[in-house]
Amino acid sequence: MKYSIATVGSHSALQILKGAKDEGFTTIAICIKKHSFIYRHFGVADEIIEIPSYKEFHMIEDDLIKRNAILIPHASLVAYVDLETIENMKVLYYGNRRILRWESDREKQRQWLNRAGLFLPKVYRDPSEIDGLVIVKFYGAKGGQGYFLAKNEEDFWRKIGSAKDYVIQEYVVGIPVYIHYFYSVIRDELELMGFDRRYESNVDGIGRIPADLQEGLQITYTIVGNFPLMLRESLLPEVFRMGQRVVEASREICSPGIFGPFCLETVVTPDLKFYVFEISARIVAGTNVFIDSSPYALIRHGKPMSTGRRIALEIREAIEQERLEEILG
Amino acid sequence: MKYSIATVGSHSALQILKGAKDEGFTTIAICIKKHSFIYRHFGVADEIIEIPSYKEFHMIEDDLIKRNAILIPHASLVAYVDLETIENMKVLYYGNRRILRWESDREKQRQWLNRAGLFLPKVYRDPSEIDGLVIVKFYGAKGGQGYFLAKNEEDFWRKIGSAKDYVIQEYVVGIPVYIHYFYSVIRDELELMGFDRRYESNVDGIGRIPADLQEGLQITYTIVGNFPLMLRESLLPEVFRMGQRVVEASREICSPGIFGPFCLETVVTPDLKFYVFEISARIVAGTNVFIDSSPYALIRHGKPMSTGRRIALEIREAIEQERLEEILG
Amino acid sequence: MKYSIATVGSHSALQILKGAKDEGFTTIAICIKKHSFIYRHFGVADEIIEIPSYKEFHMIEDDLIKRNAILIPHASLVAYVDLETIENMKVLYYGNRRILRWESDREKQRQWLNRAGLFLPKVYRDPSEIDGLVIVKFYGAKGGQGYFLAKNEEDFWRKIGSAKDYVIQEYVVGIPVYIHYFYSVIRDELELMGFDRRYESNVDGIGRIPADLQEGLQITYTIVGNFPLMLRESLLPEVFRMGQRVVEASREICSPGIFGPFCLETVVTPDLKFYVFEISARIVAGTNVFIDSSPYALIRHGKPMSTGRRIALEIREAIEQERLEEILG
Predict the structure, then answer these.
(1) Number of B:C CB contacts under 8 A?
(2) How distant is the Cα of B85 from the closest Cα of chain A, in angstroms?
(3) A4 φ, ψ (degrees, to nearest 5)
(4) A256-266 confidence digits (pLDDT tens)
(5) Residue C280 forms beta bridges with which residues?
(6) Under 8 Å between Cβ of B205 and A174
């Protein structure tokens, strides 16, 4: 094949590169120096391009273009390379890169999800409105370390300190569920890749400490890993409809809309409502729990299929049908 | 093959239908209209029969009989079609349908488990007897939404409200473990399919809320999904013996006893005792964590084997040995 | 092949024996009588040798030697057969058996991990030094049943009772992560098998009990099972380096060092530091979550590979290269 598949060596690169090789592509891992040994070890990259730091990403763009590489974005790219640089890159890019603006801006993201008709946690404009448990989040926070819970206005003021750029969100009491979708442009079909539950430090450890010893604990939400999860099959119709509505709404706000992998980050309440507190408009690390195969994709495709491989399959089918430009954005 | 395999499109239908196809059967999904697109999407059903609502299930019985379909029961069938209708259906039915009376009646279920010599949580006849943490359950409650915990009699009366039909059960402090068995009539052998841990809203979310912010929380036990789990290998002998005793006891109370998939729902205490708080006398949704293959079944059978496929394998072997009537009940 | 592979029928024997058969070995399970039916059921053992109790293990040594068996150690062997007996056994033994002294002695283990430059929880020499949440552990405790948490010196004295042989350790607030490694002597390479999270009774159940009902609960840490877990890919470089340093340090303290499977038992803090609270110098039961295949090993080896099978592959390659003596210790 005359195209190769490239991604940044981090996040979900193992499944992306492995999946690309399974579909017959040559693969390129772009790594900062101290990470490259991982991708060498696993043998998933036909070529490793080292960069001194993610900030130097633009330096290797010409190399990628020369190799006819299609770049697969993921959170490490989005976190370390600024949006403008991504938007202006000349390298072939899988996905609709303009949707990233809608993902990264809390207000725009909320508009999108609202338009899709999803349940969203209430947002309080002012601390005085707090009428139940809330979670206070900060703009641009990495990994949820600064977040805190407050039970009322007084509690809020005691904890907020001198922080300014925050959002006060209803804390929906329920259980976290991350839903992994793949929208195929080539097959014009929404697929379900599966579910996971994040494993966050320290919030997923405090339940192991008896209540009377929890005094003074600060809770934090640093993502450390993911657990595979299966959902009640009777919830699948709603899960599909939610994904479908997100795709449709995205077409209205940012044509041609979202495609490829995306994730709805939800809390499921006791009455089985999905409250969506975030959308990720690209592959998320939770799909690593299906590094070999997603259970649903296995049924749908009749063979092992990770989200990474699903991306490569889409690109291969696009090339075969001479429709590649439809999935580069 | 002249038989087909049919099930209601919900609960564990994906693995049942996929497994049936893997074993060479044609498959039928019986779906309410708004769910049928799921089974069409996954391509697991050779035919989809739509019904307006589960109450209309009896309407399609003749269709199933005409197609020589063997109906695989699961919780959605049992929840939505009343017991008498199930008992009187003429369609070929996999399993001992008379055992459902023993499953659905708390008192009879307790007799069965007692006869099998299992540890059961204590039941308090009167609130005045409460001498430790208890869980109060209601008859016929769907998904555990009305359940509550109480630490003493006073706490009980404060929380019970006007409810009447309740059972007060010892709250066994330990960790939930769901054990999945398959008893094969054709091979005369008990198999272990594996373990899961349910994921319930909101009770599995409250541990993420610090103790001092939990005030006023109502806990609920709505099943949302399941996590795959492996048990200590040294517990397997006891796990097998428990399953064996359940099968033996079932033969005494409801000949020819239970066969096919069943599940013991347990809490494991720190001294490694299994307290059984419920038995499900058919496939449960927790087996969806093995939608491709159960780890134990993979070893036993030398190839991927979900519980759904195991059912189909049993039916195929019964047909080949002309013993089908032994597994229809 | 003229060698066979033997292990004690418990712990991780299913994957060890299954893996050995997958690599072409004949297999022997050494079982106490009431457990042997499990290994017969799963068909993983070509021969089952029954012993009245683990204490009689030495009785069958000659049988193993006659069969040219290579014994694979795991925790059940180490727990039930005393160290001296293991050190003096004449049977072929996979691994460096002298490392077990460094694993079983808390002080020596700490030296080893320190030398590897890992983060360790602080140890308090005297209760008066307690300046935060601590966990009090006992020597030789089986499964963590006697452990307790204390928030200060007063709390410590109230809970310690008459116990004498204890260690007071900083309770690192974070989330437990168990890291599974395999160091191959034959390929001179460290491999990552994956991650799990233990499931302990009752400590993993108390989070399901609201704070106001937890009064009087005694927490315990009895291992019941394991959940599969994936870690953030960006943590893999650090994970590999930690494992590498453990191997290097082991060569300095106990030549030729550790090889084969081992496990770092860690707590990951919100700033993504791995605090290592224990090392297991052999296969651990957490690898049972990869009873078919580890996700990482699948990529590395291009086919399903459990830790048990990885051991057998190492032995097979050693035999083929006439280097067997390098991996028997």
Answers:
(1) 125
(2) 22
(3) -120, 165
(4) 999 999 999 99
(5) C263
(6) yes
Q: For all residues of chain C together, what is the average pLDDT?
A: 95
Distance CA B62, CA B51 (A): 13
Query: Tens digit of pLDDT for each residue in A220-256?
Result: 999 999 999 999 999 999 999 999 999 999 999 999 9
Q: Which residues in chain C land under pLDDT 50? A: none
Q: Is the pLDDT of residue B57 over 80?
A: yes
Length, in residues, of chain B: 329
Contact A219, A202 (CB under 8 A): yes
How far apart CA B38 and CA B18 sit, in angstroms, is: 13
Q: Which phi and psi (to 5°) does residue B172 adopt? A: -80, 120
Point out which residues pair with A181 in neighbouring strands. Answer: A192, A262
φ, ψ of residue B55 to 5 degrees: the values are -65, -25
Residues of A in contact with B288 (CB under 8 A): 230, 233, 295
pLDDT digits (tens, 9 = 90+) for C158-189: 999 888 889 999 999 999 999 999 999 999 99
Separation CA B287–CA B300 (nearest Å) = 17
Beta carbons of C222 and C144 less than 8 angstroms apart: yes
Residue B164 has pLDDT above 90, yes or no: no
For residues A126 and A254, the answer to whether their CB atoms sit within 8 Å is: no
B241 touches chain C (CB under 8 A): no
A contact residues 88-107, partner B, Cβ 8 Å cutoff: none
| Segment holding A244, helix H or strand E | helix A236-253
Spatial distance between the Cα atoms of B260 and B40, rounded to a whole number of angstroms: 27
Check CB contact under 8 Å for B37 and A237: yes
* Six token digits for residue A166: 């925050």
Q: Taking a C-beta distance cutoff of 8 angstroms, is the pair B226, B214 a contact?
A: no
- Nearest residue on chain C to B217, alpha-carbon basis: C210
Residue B120: is its pLDDT beyond 90?
yes
Query: Which pLDDT does position A146 carry in this prediction?
Result: 79
Tokens of B32: 């309410």
Contact (Cβ atoms closer than 8 angstroms) between residue B228 and residue B289? yes
Q: Where are the alpha helices (DSSP H) in chain B?
A: 13-22, 36-42, 61-66, 75-80, 83-88, 100-104, 106-115, 153-160, 236-253, 295-301, 307-320
DSSP string, C71-102: EPPBHHHHHHS-HHHHHH--SEEBB-GGGHHH
Strand partners, B71: B6, B93
Give the residue from chain C lying closest to A40, CA to CA. C300
Supply the pTM of this predicted model: 0.97
**Under 8 Å CB-to-CB from C131, ≥6 apart: which residues?**
none
Alpha helices (H) along A23-74: 36-42, 61-66
Segment 200-239 of chain B within 8 Å of chain C by CB: 203-204, 206-208, 211-212, 214-215, 217, 219, 227-237
Q: pLDDT tens, A160-184?
A: 988 888 999 999 999 999 999 999 9
If one counts every other C-beta atom within 10 angstroms of the C-beta of residue A108, the result is 14
Of all helices (H) and strands (E), which one includes residue B137?
A: strand B134-138
The pLDDT of residue A325 is: 97
> CA torsion sign, A283 to A289 to A291 to A296?
negative
Q: Quick one: pLDDT band at residue A36, thresholds 50, 70, 90?
A: very high
Mean pLDDT of chain A: 95
Tokens of A236: 């699948």
Residue B247 structure tokens = 């099968």
Token pair for residue C139? 């020597």
User: Taking a C-beta distance cutoff of 8 angstroms, is the pair C13, B233 a contact?
Assistant: yes
What is the model's pLDDT at position A46?
A: 98
